[in-house]
Amino acid sequence: MKILIGKVVKPQGIKGEVKISSAIDDPEQFKSVTHFYFGEKRMEVKSIRVSSGFVFAQIDGISDRDKAETLRNWEVYADREEIFVPSGSYLIADLVGCQIYLDDGMAVGELTEILQYGAADVFVVHGKKDVQFPFLKDLVQKVDVDAKTIVLKKTRFNEVVLYED
Question: 0.85 cut: is pTM over it?
Answer without folding.
Answer: no
